Amino acid sequence: MAYVLTEEQQMLSDSARDLFKAAPVALVRELRDQDNEVGYSQDLWKEMVEMGLNGLLVSEENGGMDFGWRGMGVILEECGRTLSNSPVLTTAVAAHIIDRYGSEEQKAMLTEIITGGKSITIALRSTSRMSADECIVTADGDHYLLSGTKQMVANANTADYILLSALSDGVEQYYLIENSDAVQVETERYMDSRMYSRLSFDSVKLSQSALVGVAKAQRAIATTLISGLNALLSAELLGLMTEAFERTVGYLKERRQFGVLIGSFQALQHRAADLYSEIELVKSIVIKALDALDDGDPIATAYCSMAKAKASKIAQLATNEGVQMYGGIGMTDDEEIGFFMKRARVAAEQFGSMSYHADRFARLSSY
Amino acid sequence: MSLEDFRKEVIDFIEANCAESMRQPMVKESDTYWGGRNATFQNEDQERWFTAMAERGWTTPTWPKEYGGGGLSKAEAKILKQEMDKRKCRPPLLSFGIWMLGPALLQFGSEEQRQQYLPDIIQGKTRWCQGYSEPGAGSDLAGLQTSAISDGDHYIVNGQKVWTSYGDKADMIFALVRTDQSVKKQMGITFLLVDMDTEGVSTQPIKLISGKSPFCETFFDNVRVPKANVIGEENAGWTVAKYLLTHERSAISSAVDADMLTPLSYYAKNSIGVDETGVLKDSILRSDIVEWEIDAAAFKFTLERINEEMKAGQAIGAKSSFMKYYGSELNKRKYELRLQVEGADGLVWDGERTNEGKVARQFCRTKGNSIEGGTSEVQLNIISKHILGLPS
Predict the structure, then answer these.
(1) Which residues in chain A touch residue B305, judged by CB atoms under 8 angstroms apart?
(2) What is the dihedral of CA B228, B232, B236, B240, to 10 degrees?
């Protein structure tokens, strides 16, 4: 493992950058202004599927590209730069879980996910505070019954499948279910112009084959999901904050007040230099977390939570500084810096808040 | 010789020359050896370890053999360091000559000057100190006023330096002096070597807020210095000084790094305790500690990353300013938290129980981290200008 990208990863990064060029922040605005019910561009999604991005974390044996977490991180970083929304994060991670732990029947679904563009959303514990799950599974003859609620489930209004956790006899288990009419989906637009849903399950019938992995694998699945999703969100936040920062520094070099460029003011220079330093730290911890996942190193659990806590905090700082340094224009909807601030807040909350991850790191460090 | 054979040779050498007592942490001042005209060894073990290393030139493993250095390749030097680290060997010689002046001499000195000074640095015969800052030239270093007036083949030096570490113990000083008042301030500076025994040189120790300190004030009163002691060209000393400061900055940030990962939470658990679920009892302090530990780890990874990028051929440039800035601020934060973690015991100033108030004194000392070697504000200026390209 190394901090510098391999040639292969660099090529992936370049083609992702080209792809997302076609989906600039303006597209996010357009979808929002159209009150688009999907919340992302289906054309872009098609292109992402064609690139095989849903299979980046899937073994070649099961039709994937096996690019690893670092490779997937490169994609998310580019998504972060353009604020591009799509179901790729949850679909690729869910595909990885199926590839590693799924039954033969579930593995057979991978083709239509990777090449057919079926999408999967993921619902971890019921809220972003990640306290105990409120979804309960009980056995009922030859099937299960699922009851409870989930909050803030991304793209659930369009997802074909849902990978979710629920308690069975007090033990957290993972199920892959169809997003059928039996699931009540209440969808709302969030601050980042994306669609999130509250899911309610009222004795929804699940077949026994919905369980992902054997009983012993459930803890490993939970760890992989929490760590992997958050490492990738951290990569997205890294791209987001880097772009916001570069735009802000660019603005400091063109905006004139009092007859001079505002970038010549030390009050702003020092804040920009401090922010530069913090972003350098985020870059390192994100790489470290993704590499540790690829190495199967148990320390990944700690690194991923460290990355999410740090990236969330600095994305907050970078976007706040962005709005402030743009001044009045930064408060207007016409200027794009505000979009970065809004996405940063939502991404920070997804799959475990900043304080949840800080606490998780501390517990893993035995304090 | 193959690297494997070399490693074997190193191990044999260490086992033969580095006594057990030279593999203990350095606690007291006398545990360190700085060399110089008036140096004495603490004991035979220290003398044997130093002498053996100096004979091979391994006090400076990669410096050229022609000046008495080790002449080792990078790979060999790495092996030597690995094996010494593994056995916790003390550095045989601490020296500003090795860390600062030597690299500058190798870069800017004449052949004659290298012949004259490098062997004595390597053999620990000359102890050097640095004369940069002045009472009126701290952050604005280029504003220094210590003057060197030409007088035949000599200069007459007058003025005062401050923060000269171990000035009272050094044999020689490498100093920045003003040789031209009429030009832009950076253009009239010369890098000059002065023997501390010359008539008119005197020193005065400085007591810091932490108690004792190695720092001195150094005074020059009509001191005659040969012009042959100029490194580089007359009036071109600023270039040498900047080169040397880059070395100092990375030295400070890596010194901070060594101690950086001693978990604060370890001390906190000892002094505050944990509840039945293993969580630290002071939840507000706990969240500050978490934040610090994440930053400390991320900073360590960043140093690794920059190191890797440098090896891949990227220039470090102004990144040393980022390292200096973040590393010293991190160390200050650490001791601010450490003081809270220790509670009353952290405030004791004297006495054996607290190792002479070690925490309280170190806390005070860390306040200087963001001042020495260029203040945090100066580092932020450098980042703004040279990395972000913000206008002046």
Answers:
(1) 3, 283-284, 287
(2) -120
Indicate if B378 and B274 belong to the same structural domain: yes
Query: For residue B322, which amino acid is it?
Result: F
Q: Are residues B187 and B230 in the same domain?
A: yes
B64, B37 in Cβ contact below 8 A?
A: no
d(CA A214, CA A216): 5
Largest CA distance in chain A: 79
Is B290–A261 a contact, with Cβ atoms under 8 angstroms apart?
Answer: no
Does the residue B245 lie in any domain? no
Pairing mode, strands A161-168 and A256-257: unpaired
Domain-located, residue B122? no
**Do A82 and A25 contact (CB within 8 A), yes or no?**
yes
Please say whether the beta carbons of B172 and B231 come within 8 A: no
- The answer to whether A152 and A206 have CB atoms below 8 angstroms apart is no
Judging contacts by C-beta atoms under 8 Å, the chain B residues touching residue A285 are 294, 297-298, 301
Closest residue in A to B288 (Cα–Cα) = A358
Location of each CATH 1.20.140.10 domain in chain A: 218-364
Structural domain boundaries, residue B191: 128-236
Q: Are residues B199 and B299 in the same domain?
A: no
Q: Taking the model in full, what pTM does it have?
A: 0.88
Of residues B279, B377, B387, nearest to A276 (C-beta): B387
Which residues of chain B have a CB within 8 Å of the CB of A304? Answer: none
Torsion over CA: B41, B45, B48, B54 (sign): negative
Residues of B in contact with A274 (CB under 8 A): 380
Q: Is A297 exposed, middle or buried (0-12, 13-18, 19+ CB in 10 A)?
A: middle
Token pair, residue B23, equals: 């593999």
Q: Give buried/exposed letters for B227-240 (b at 16+ CB in 10 A, else e).
A: eebbbbebbbbbbb
Q: Which CATH architecture has domain A7-114?
A: Orthogonal Bundle (1.10)
**Cβ distance of B383 and A277 shorter than 8 Å:** yes
The two structure tokens encoding residue B150:
């030409």
Max Cα-Cα span within chain B: 80
CA distances from B13 to A249, A335, B72, B76 (A): 55, 67, 15, 14
Q: What CATH number does the domain containing B351 carry?
A: 1.20.140.10
Inter-chain CB proximity B380 and A274 less than 8 Å: yes
367 residues of chain A, pLDDT tens digit each: 689 999 999 999 999 999 998 899 999 999 999 999 999 999 999 999 999 999 999 999 999 999 999 999 999 999 999 999 999 999 999 999 999 999 999 999 999 999 999 999 999 998 889 988 999 999 999 999 999 999 999 999 999 999 999 999 999 999 999 999 999 999 999 999 999 999 999 999 999 999 999 999 999 999 999 999 999 999 999 999 999 999 999 999 999 999 999 999 999 999 999 999 999 999 999 999 999 999 999 999 999 999 999 999 999 999 999 999 999 999 999 999 999 999 999 999 999 999 999 999 999 999 9
Point out the residue among A252, A263, A361 whose CB comes nearest to the CB of B294: A361
